[in-house]
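This is your field. Have a critical look at both lines of this record:
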Amino acid sequence: MKTLIARVEQQCIWLVFLTWTVAASAQPTTLLCDPAQTTAKFTLGDVLHTVHGEFKVKSCEIHFDPTSSKIDGSIVFDATTGQSGNDGRDRKMHKEVLESARYPEISFRPDRIEGNVAPTGTSSIRVHGMFGIHGAEHEITSPIDVKFDSGHWTASAHFLVPYAKWGMKNPSVFLLRVGDTVNIELQAGGDSRSGPK
């Protein structure tokens, strides 16, 4: 009888521990970006070569509830920091394409997740939200790989921005033709904390 009681007690303790672990892992989580780990790189092809550049992050705070897959917050990049390594080309980009003096922010506001996010390790999901650029917002869904590990997180995403279709000027000239779509590669990371926002 004592052995049976001991086994039942052990099972109860294990069940309580398992329930606590699941509940802890399912708490709402706030993701904060570390500027040193967060960049938005862009690639634009032309007939002669491919242009590479990047933007620096301005602010980032995202709230995620794993029990409901609800997500909100934003990640904002400083449009005025965009650079491709060529001063003349960058001046043209800021003045004629991005109009960054008038529209100084590029942002993404997530609002829905497709897929399951594991409390630890890497998860491949799709995130839906609004991408803001040049004074307007556009609906996008992007595949994202996100990893959680002991209070830290990282994420990587790749998506296309049809900038000409979205009302920005294509900077092509007679001898230099560039595409109407730019590739964006987002790398982000920082601290995560559990609990209500």
Remarks:
- The longest helix spans residues 2-25.
- Confidence is low (pLDDT under 50) at residues 11-24.
